[in-house]
Structures are given as structure tokens and as C-alpha cells.
Amino acid sequence: MPAFLDQVFAPFLVTGVPTALEQFGFGQIFWTPAYYPHQQLEIWRPAVVDQKLHWAKNFNIQTGLIDAFNRQLAYFDPHLKHNEGFIALRAKRRPVMLVRPPDGELLKVGKTSGGLKLVRRLCVVAPLFSIVDDIGDAKVPAEFRDRVRQLEYPQFVLFPNGGPIQRDSILRLDELQSVAINNLEHTGFRLAADIEAVLRSQAAFFLTGTGGDEFVEYRELHGCPATNRTESTGFQYRLSRYRSRMSEVPVRWGFSRIELG
């Protein structure tokens, strides 16, 4: 019988998280304002523009702009170059998992002569989306939920309710975002060691198509339902190591390509 990741390893999250920036690491959980990636490009454009003083006001959202990011006039107030624009995005305060903290070594580089700002103090995070609504009803089919728990999808991980995760949620590695370090709010929780090892491996597999030893090993040991490589979602992205010295990690079950009902 297939085993679910959140059942095999417990607890899923643990406390005892460092708060010093230099000790930040993969798997720590924070709260932060996270945006929803836009499906349709929407841009804030002013209704009133002073052509001489280059100020603009009374902005509203517009779509389908022919001159998007290529206006004839730059704005001085608010400051906006002719090839820049204000994108309209929705955002929400939500839990995120830290994937990569800022690189402290960049502080040694200093300012560049060309004006490029290298030190931005940005973290790479993966957002979590609840799959249960406010009254306890599921937002996704039970079949899909269970397949995520079996790690069939390399871009998803189910986080069970607990600690800062107020409802069962899905971590999305396909929606990584950059967040300024000062916008992260500590929760005091991080992934347990065994969970962290699997997720590190899964993230490497999903983002690069290589590695993923612990991820693949877990799936093989705990019964992912796909039975061969032709059913493998994500297998087509793995790099071929034909005739190389290092053989590719064998995938016995792979990732299911069977469509949801």
C-alpha cells in the first residue's frame, strides 16, 4: 500500500530555528506578502499626464496596451522611465518556505561603477497555498491530494496542518518568488531533518532535471503508482547521460502522467 510523505515522517515541522540572518537556510518557514503570478498582463496607466512637467496621476488598470513598456514619455513624478511600467498584481500574506537566503559574499563586492545594484538582500521562497477553505471543505479532489502526498508531482509538496500551517497546504516549487529579507516574518518553524533531505532533493530534480537521489529513492520505496518511464511526469525533463561515466539515477515508477478524472 502506498505511503504518504506526511505519514512516513513525523513531525513534519520542528521548532528551534535560528533568527540570525547568517544562519538562515533551506526549509525555514516564514510569513510574507506573496503575489499571484499574472495570467493576463495588467498595467497601471495615468488618466492625467502633464507633458511639460512629466508628472502623472489618477492611475487605473489597463490591458492590451500596444505601447506597454515603450511609452514616448518618461514620468518624473512618480519616477518611471519610458520603458518601465507599474504592473497590477494581487498579493496576500501567506506562509512560505525559504529555498535560498541572501548571499552574504556579495557584501564584499561593494558598489559597481556602472550603477548596477548587486546587493539586494533577496531570498528565494516557495509559497504555500491552502487546499481547505475556511469552513473545512476541500479545494481540490481527494485523488489529486493523495497523489501529491505520494510525490507524483515534482513541483508540489503537501504540508499537513500544524504549527504556522493553519490548514493543509500545497507548497509550489513552480511559483518561486524573490522576497526582500526585511519582509520575512519568523514563524519559529522549519522542516524536520528527514523531510528537508527529501525536499532538497525534490527541488533539485524539479529545477534542474538532475540529481534527486533521495527524492527518487523515497518514491521507489513507498510505491508511486506509475509503473514505467512512459508514464513519468517530469521524466522528459531529465538530462540524458547516455555514454557518460556517471549513470542516470534509475526511475522504477516515475511520475504519473495519467490525467485527473
Describe the model.
The protein has four helices and 13 strands. It has helices at residues 5-8, 142-149, 193-208, 213-222, and strands spanning 13-14, 28-35, 42-49, 56-63, 75-76, 79-80, 86-87, 91-100, 122-130, 156-159, 169-172, 177-180, 185-191. Strands 1, 2, 8, 9, 10, 11, 12 and 13 form an eight-stranded antiparallel β-sheet that branches. A three-stranded antiparallel β-sheet has the order 4-3-7, with no helix packed on it. Helix 3 packs across helix 4 (213-222).
**CATH first level of the largest domain: which class?**
Mainly Beta
Q: Tell me, what's the shape?
A: globular
Largest sheet geometry: 8 strands, antiparallel
Strand % is 25-35%
Number of strands: 13
Order of helices and strands: HEEEEEEEEEHEEEEHH
Number of helices: 4
Helix fraction, binned, reads: 10-25%
Topology:
Blueprint: H1 5-8, E1 13-14, E2 28-35, E3 42-49, E4 56-63, E5 75-76, E6 79-80, E7 86-87, E8 91-100, E9 122-130, H2 142-149, E10 156-159, E11 169-172, E12 177-180, E13 185-191, H3 193-208, H4 213-222
Antiparallel strand pairs: 1-13, 2-8, 2-13, 3-4, 3-7, 5-6, 8-9, 9-11, 9-12, 10-11
Helix pairs in contact: 3-4
